[in-house]
Specification:
Structural class: alpha/beta
Distance between the termini: 75 Å
Largest sheet: 8 strands, mixed
Number of helices: 7
Strand content: 15-25%
Number of strands: 11
């Protein structure tokens, strides 16, 4: 065997060892990830490689800090964060964003749960399936790929099934998501029937959220700079679509402001209670981290809105 070939084999083995050592995301002590499917998840897709978590580099910092990306998720889980102190009875299922390719698990996940639980709201963080690479043709939003929406609908049923055990009012369970997760908020709001065959008692519970919060959502406008709404969303909107809160920046160059505008206009036309906040600046993917831009004060707006629709008390 030649020296160059030996070196190549050594390098491949070393790289494989490095990949094998990549960490897997775990919630903070005292919290446990719960598998949402009792067996194999429906419509399972092949994922090359194991799930792993990776900290972003300085070029991707938000508010001067890194964030954690979870990739190649094939086994979805939920993590329940009970409220701190007073319990309002409300619960929110949180969908981190990441373009249906990754999950911003802390920036748009655990940090959200810290805020919600401090306000007496149970937070359920969903680690939904993402293939991790654009090479998979079924990657993306429903109906391009059903897997993320299946995971979200399943989680909503589980939350309602365990409502008494987790001290949750089953009529005060909402959804909140960012970017691609914001699109899933809309998909959950309009698809009131499950898109997968029932598995057990959890799937007999309603999968319709009682309220919905979509932050810089994507995949909603039919085309760039168009007020026409994605027909898969538009065709399912009725007066029974839950009250919705929308927020986006006009300088968002990842998901256009037209995503929120098109959804807002269609909800309004259908008679759905909807509140929208647009800001001139702030960009995309800021989560809850405060920056110099006023848009990052949005959590207080959501709290006030939840009070006005009767989900939490003043």
């Amino acid at each position: 065997m030649t020296k160059p070939l030996l070196f190549a084999l050594f390098l491949l083995a070393a790289l494989g060892g490095l990949n094998a050592q990549k960490p897997v995301w775990q919630p903070t002590p005292g919290h446990v990830q719960i598998p949402i499917w009792p067996g194999a998840a429906p419509d399972a897709q092949p994922v090359h490689g194991a799930e792993f978590a990776e900290t972003t580099g300085p070029h991707d910092y938000v508010a001067g800090r890194p964030w954690l990306s979870v990739e190649k998720v094939s086994r979805p889980t939920m993590t329940v964060y009970p409220p701190q102190g007073r319990n309002t009875g409300a619960a929110v299922v949180v969908f981190p964003g990441g373009g249906y390719q990754i999950l911003a698990i802390d920036l748009e996940g655990t940090e959200v749960c810290d805020w919600l639980t401090s306000r007496g709201i149970t937070c359920v963080l969903l680690k939904y399936r993402v293939p991790g690479t654009a090479a998979f043709p079924k990657s993306g939003p429903y109906p391009q790929s059903p897997v993320a929406l299946e995971d979200a609908q399943r989680t909503m049923g589980l939350v309602r099934l365990h409502a008494a055990e987790w001290h949750i009012d089953p009529h005060k369970v909402g959804v909140l998501g960012f970017s691609a997760g914001g699109h899933m908020v809309a998909a959950m709001s309009v698809h009131r029937e499950r898109i997968y065959p029932a598995v057990d008692a959890a799937d007999k519970e309603s999968c319709r959220p009682d309220f919905a919060v979509a932050l810089y959502p994507g995949h909603l406008s039919l085309a760039e700079n168009s007020l026409a709404l994605n027909p898969d969303i538009a065709s399912h909107i009725t007066s029974q679509t839950p009250p919705t809160f929308l927020l986006q920046d006009e300088d968002d160059h990842v998901d256009s402001v037209y995503d929120s505008l098109s959804y807002y206009a269609t909800l309004k036309k259908a008679g759905v209670p909807v509140e929208m906040h647009l800001y001139a600046q702030g960009g995309h993917a800021f989560g809850l981290r405060r920056t110099k831009f006023p848009v990052t004060g949005w959590p207080k707006l959501v709290e006030t809105w939840l009070e006005t629709i009767g989900m939490i008390a003043e």
